[in-house]
Amino acid sequence: QVQLVESGGGLVQAGGSLRLSCAASGSIITINVMGWYRQAPGKQRELVARITGGGTTNYTDSVKGRFTISRDNAKRTVYLQMNSLKPEDTAVYYCNANILTPFAVRGMDYWGKGTLVTVSS
């Protein structure tokens, strides 16, 4: 069984920084794309950033230049460094990964339970 566990959320003042981590565990053959999504109150979940196994990244426009996604394949972990945080970044942040498990014919999407990031003005 695959699990994604996020950590690193919390309360920070505008202009501050936080680093989120998400570690995958379980019966894993390979991890393909990993990403971070967020959902603010009353809004739909949106993609924040994603990174392929080869390290190609893409970001939603509102975080470009402020957030950096990275991964450590040996640790099966993806990170999101968030700088210059704004109140509008307040949301629950979810880790997502496309993972190939034994006996599966293709990778499946897995989600973490989320970690709350609150940015005060």
Largest sheet entry: 7 strands, mixed
Distance between the termini: 40 Å
Percent of residues in helices: under 10%
Number of helices: 0
Poorly predicted runs are none
Question: What order do the helices and strands follow?
Answer: EEEEEEEEEEE
- Look at the helices and sheets and give the structural class: mainly beta
Please count the beta strands (DSSP E, at least 2 residues each).
Answer: 11
The average pLDDT is 97
Rg, Cα atoms, Å? 14 Å
Provide the β-strand percentage band. over 45%
Based on Cα principal axes, name the global outline.
Answer: elongated
Written description of the protein model:
- With 121 residues, this protein is an all-beta fold.
- The protein has strands at 3-7, 10-13, 18-25, 30-39, 46-51, 57-59, 67-72, 77-82, 91-100, 108-111, 115-120.
- Strands 2, 4, 5, 6, 9, 10 and 11 form a seven-stranded mixed beta sheet that branches.
- It is elongated and about 50 Å long.
- The model has no long low-confidence stretch (mean pLDDT 97).
Give the SSE layout.
Elements: E1 3-7, E2 10-13, E3 18-25, E4 30-39, E5 46-51, E6 57-59, E7 67-72, E8 77-82, E9 91-100, E10 108-111, E11 115-120
Parallel strand pairs: 2-11
Antiparallel strand pairs: 1-3, 3-8, 4-5, 4-9, 5-6, 7-8, 9-10, 9-11
In a few lines, what is going on in this structure?
The protein has strands at 3-7, 10-13, 18-25, 30-39, 46-51, 57-59, 67-72, 77-82, 91-100, 108-111, 115-120. By secondary structure, it is mostly beta strands.
Key words describing this protein structure:
elongated, 4-stranded antiparallel β-sheet, 11 strands, about 120 residues, mainly beta
